[in-house]
Design a protein that fits this description.
This protein is an alpha/beta fold. The protein has 25 helices and eleven strands. It starts with a helix and ends with a strand. The structure holds iron/sulfur cluster (2 copies).
Length: 416
């Protein structure tokens, strides 16, 4: 279905009841109807019908939407807000091209980087050299970064561990039960390889052979949410091709990627391969809590306080937010509790924290304040983007709270 039809169809479902308003982070923060789901749907419809021209004000209201989909989860009319927003952003981009204007987003460089795994790997090498040679320390202490206006970007870069090559096949421990396929994703592969290694370790203990198909790439989320639908679809088709063999579950470690992979069928509707692909997608927490565990698997006790952050993609899109709690309950002695106001986005939201930095930080601030008050030992979250952004906030606040993926913590406690 084309963008205009999607927008009109979804906006027509809205009965303007306003039930979504208290759940919208930008409406809560800015107290402006145009920054609410209901207001944005009106703007999208007006644009699709040509009742309003494309202008900077309209674009900025839509650009400030986090695409967190908290509104979609509570909507009694089942408005597919994410689909309407992605379609509107695609429409905006096509109108800009028609008018001979440049692309509206400042994410072009990031999109270019994630398009090819080799580019991300090269970026990883450059960032590691920057951190390990002392150049980062030098630029920070001499305040050069501040003078160049790069201090805030630098502060968000996580400390990178050495990158290890991931083999394509990982045999099960003991007897082999079944195959499972791992989607690595560009961000997890660069910034959180420990979550990938931990997932493989746990799956092997659960008697699965783990396959990591070559040829897989970025899930396409960044392009899709920026309105660059043509490139997003190209990336989707590349992944479908890379995973054609077999029909086993495709397990993903980053909930942001999982959410997009699970909706390929929406964007490639009518394509049977896309429907089959999306049906195989499972979040790692969801997969690990759905399978039988051999009786001999045990975990070392961990008498620590662990706060769980629920990423929007896990909560509002995949609706699997209870699964990390179920998994971590296997660790004896751990005190596990949710981060307050967990249903409100932390501000990371893909590239949002780079394009709407001020709002993103205003949304992150209450999370950091809760963490300061609760003083846990560990914060767990299932999305590397949220982990990186929250960890940067904790560093800036001087709080020594470790940030981990739930599977990293679980694998660390494995008793073997
Ligand atoms: S909850 Fe749904 S129907 Fe009600 S105003 Fe929000 S989007 Fe419209
Ligand atoms: S997606 Fe999130 S930020 Fe955007 S309108 Fe819905 S609740 Fe608000």
């Amino acid at each position: 279905m084309d963008s205009i039809t999607n927008i009109k169809q979804e906006a027509a479902k809205c009965v303007a009841c306003g039930l979504c308003l208290p759940h919208c982070p930008t409406y809560n923060l800015l107290q402006d109807e145009a920054e609410s789901p209901r207001g944005r749907l009106c703007l999208m419809l007006a644009l699709a019908r040509d009742d309003l021209p494309l202008n900077a004000k309209l674009e900025s209201h839509l650009a400030r939407c986090l695409n967190c989909r908290a509104c979609e989860k509570v909507c009694p009319s089942y408005v597919a807000f994410g689909l309407a927003l992605d379609s509107t952003r695609a429409l905006i981009e096509s109108r800009r091209v028609d008018a001979g204007l440049p692309a509206s987003k400042s994410t072009s460089l990031i999109e270019w980087l994630v398009e090819k795994p080799a580019r991300m790997q090269r970026l990883g090498i450059i960032l590691r050299l920057y951190q390990w040679t002392g150049l980062q320390w030098l630029l920070r202490t001499t305040r050069v970064l501040r003078l160049l206006g790069l201090a805030s970007l630098d502060a968000d870069i996580p400390r990178l561990a050495p990158r290890k090559h991931l083999a394509e096949f990982h045999p099960a421990i003991d007897k082999s039960k079944e195959r499972v396929i791992l989607f690595t994703g560009c961000q997890a592969d660069m910034a959180d390889q420990s979550a990938l290694a931990s997932s493989i370790r746990l799956l092997k203990q659960l008697e699965y052979q783990v396959h990591v198909p070559p040829g897989q790439g970025c899930c396409g989320a960044l392009h899709l949410h920026a309105g660059h639908r043509g490139k997003a679809i190209e990336l989707m088709q590349g992944n479908i091709k890379a995973f054609t063999e077999g029909n086993e579950a495709i397990v993903c470690v980053a909930s942001g990627c999982t959410a997009t992979l699970g909706e390929y069928n929406k964007y490639l509707n009518g394509d049977e391969r896309a429907a089959g692909f999306s049906a195989r997608i499972k979040d790692i927490n969801q997969f690990l809590t759905s399978v039988n565990w051999p009786k001999n698997i045990a975990f070392d006790p961990l008498p620590r306080r662990i706060v769980v952050h629920n990423p929007c993609t896990l909560t509002h899109v995949l609706r699997q937010e209870d699964k990390p709690y179920d998994l971590l309950a296997r660790i004896p002695g751990a005190e596990i509790f949710p981060l307050p106001e967990n249903s409100l986005c932390c501000g990371a939201a893909g590239a949002y924290h780079l394009t709407q930095t001020q709002i993103a930080r205003q949304l992150r601030d209450p999370k950091i304040a809760h963490l300061r008050r609760l003083a846990p030992d560990i914060l767990v979250t299932s999305n590397p983007g949220c982990a990186t952004f929250l960890a940067a906030g904790l560093r800036a606040a001087g709080l020594a709270i470790e940030v981990l993926h739930p599977v990293t913590l679980l694998a660390r406690q494995l008793k073997i």
